Structure of DUF7948 domain-containing protein:
Amino acid sequence: MDVIDRATTRVGLMVGFLAMLNCQILPAQASPAVSSGSMAGFNTATEANPGAAYGKLPIYFEANHGQTDPQVKFLARGQNYTIFLTDTRAILVLRPPKRPSPQPGPTILRMELVGANSGRQVVGIEKLPGRVHYLRGNDPTTWRADIPIYAKVHNQSVYPGINLVYYGTQGQLEYDLLVAPGADPKAITLRFEGATRLSLDARGDLVLHTADGHIRLQKPLLYQEMEGTRRAVSGGYVIKGPHHVGFHVGAYDTNRALVIDPVVVYSTLLGGSGDEIGFAVAVDAEGHAYVTGRTESSDFAASKGAAHSKYAGAADVFVTKLAADGASLVYSTFLGGSSDDWGHGITVDEGGHAYVTGETRSPNFPTTREAFSRKYNGDREAFVTKLAPNGARLIYSTFLGGSGDDWGHGIAVDTEGHAYVTGGARSANFPTTPGAFDTSFNGDRDAFVTKLAPNGARLIYSTFLGGVRYDWGYGIAIDNEAHAYVTGETLSLNFPTTPGAFDTKPYRDRDVFVTKLAPTGAALVYSTFLGGSRSDWGHGITVDTGGHAYVTGGTLSDDFPTTSGARDTSSKGHGDAFVTKLAPNGASLTYSTYLGGNEYDIGFGIGIDDEGHAYVTGRTKSLNFPTTPGAIDTSYNGWGDAFVTKLVPTGFSLVYSTFLGGNQHDWGEAIAVDKEGHVYVTGGAKSSDFPATSGALGSALKGTGDAFITRYEF
């Protein structure tokens, strides 16, 4: 390997051995289903910053046709690094850092499989259509052309009964270790060269100390799938010598797959010297996260060319689009006027247009020509704004309200660009449309549901939704047939319900409501109460392709409706979150469960994946909030933590559950799930030690509180 050692540099090995250390161990089966293990979660103290490079890791492998040392079987290149794979080694070569380094030249890190079978077959699989050519110098005999590239590299029988597969997903290098029945995962021993010392920190992460700093490799998280439920398996790194590392794996069923738990892809703070909260998050097909909320910082990060790059008032809406790796802004814009403005809801269409709703107290809040309403009517007004994909201009922006106080809270968009908004109205003259379900104001405060034309110039329908007392719409979702599903809270005994709905009899306290509207907005398909004898709130809602509505919120009721076999059918503390899945006709509960510990817990946001797993975030003050073994953070951190929880499709158990926070008050407000099952969470952070990843946009709290955006891979 002398040729490689002399000719290459600092980035190469880390990627290779990271892929193996954050590994999956999968027993071979007749038709093995290989789950992916991500390499996210390592940190470095060097300015070369492998954390930043990590977000751009290669997704294809070149076969070696003479373009490098003959011991190399496959290689991959990226910005500031090269990866070489031999039959027993992975070499990561990092280019020198920009600052003076105690080690001249590149840093080379090598990971070797000790005692592995040499001379084994290393093959590329899943051949890709592209080719690589090397046309160097003026001697054609040294040129190399038409080199094939592959999506995966398969190292067969690295140890008896153990195979290794490298591959890439969305720019990340990943791997699987497949352990056949009877094979011993403890046979795997890794030797590191280029690190002066190895250590394990308090979390079980492996720290590689080098002359330029240290590299942190996240503790492997292992579990098995058992009839749709995750069963954690204990395990982690074991340091076997000055340069040697192995794995300890607890008891597991060797006839089933042993899999790595999810890792944090990025976690970043977003804010300035004042106070920020992220209230809503959406995600597009390319993995960009869109966040809205409230900022009180004149130095909040606004991007050049944004629609509004200057802070306008006491509190402004912000709309921020992050790159898929969380390391940079695509755009960030202020949105507001001379007084207080809050962004409560956000969604994004297939063209990358962000739609935002919230509340404004600014008469000069930005509106556009031809918008439905440019007139500021009351002390507090709802607004609906659509931004261009680059965030540089407003497609439309309109007030939505009457002479009283009105708030926009939840927003959804259909494939044709119609925006659907819900919130609360205290205006008797809140705009409604002829033929809508309810055109008359009912009481102290009504929920509303409004559908806007794609150009924002008119209302397709707009209806009140409420009774004689207090009603508020918090969350909204739409299905493929343009039915709107709304949840919120009601104090009205005469809140509209439909015959045959799950619960048409209110208690005398605050109840959740779940309502499905016809596509025209003229009638209710179903409408039901959901609650017990004390106060209950619905905050988040989503809907699957089968028309099942999933709702989360908070309950103080010991008799909140739960279902047989659900994960938790009894209240645990001063208030619990809940997760409920309704039948498509709203007549019954598919499942309903409490979610909480012995203190106060509430769910704010909910999302689902294509398999029917529900993902929930919110706030907990419970030291014993349910977490899953091996989760990223199983310990309560401070005055209040966010939580991120994934449930099995039946609601019978938790797939994954983790705290998210630091030494002060942190909470999750919203969650989004992309087509790959990656999860994006936003909320508020008051903790100086809130967990942020290396290379992320913001790694330190800047003011009294910041918004945060965290992405997980499951």
Summary: Residues 1-58, 96-101, 300-304, 306-312 have pLDDT under 50 and may be disordered. Helices lie at 2-7, 12-21, 50-54. Residues 2-261 form one domain.
